[in-house]
Model the fold of this input.
Amino acid sequence: MKRLYRLALFVAASLWLAINDLRADVTVPVAADLQQLGDQALSRELPILLTFTSLICSYCELLEQDFLQPMLLSGEYRDRVMIRKLEPGPGTSVTDFNGKKIMASELSSRYRVFVTPTLLFVDGNGKELAERIVGINTPELFGGYLDDCIETALLHLRDPEAAARMSGCQLQNPADSATIFRTAAP
Done:
């Protein structure tokens, strides 16, 4: 019995180490050219999960390690969403959805993102499709809420009528959201 227990413990420890090694190799891609990413998203009919993060944010690290990296590693989200992160720190620039090179902090201001982490679900033109997620309140429930928002964004692209009938993760004032981006964008 002790032998079986030791073997099980050894296998569990080996699996844990292997998973951590794989997770270390998977990083969330940084959003550098949103116009190019948007073109890809439009052609594949996929929403973009754009995460605004900070290097000094422990919740951002939790989000990436416990949710985004496993999502990328699993491969289950490959045909559901394109995941990217943006760190709007000093000197960081990005090409926006209109092809203009701007400071990442300007893009953050356009979307009125003032807290990290903030997750936006946008289409290939940068328009928000689902309710944004600001921070992480309850890690135990976060994955389900994240999946709901991804599903809502995906439905808005592929079946807008079905998305209109959904109750979860909907934008509170969709017209306001479109107006905010349209007026803030060049």
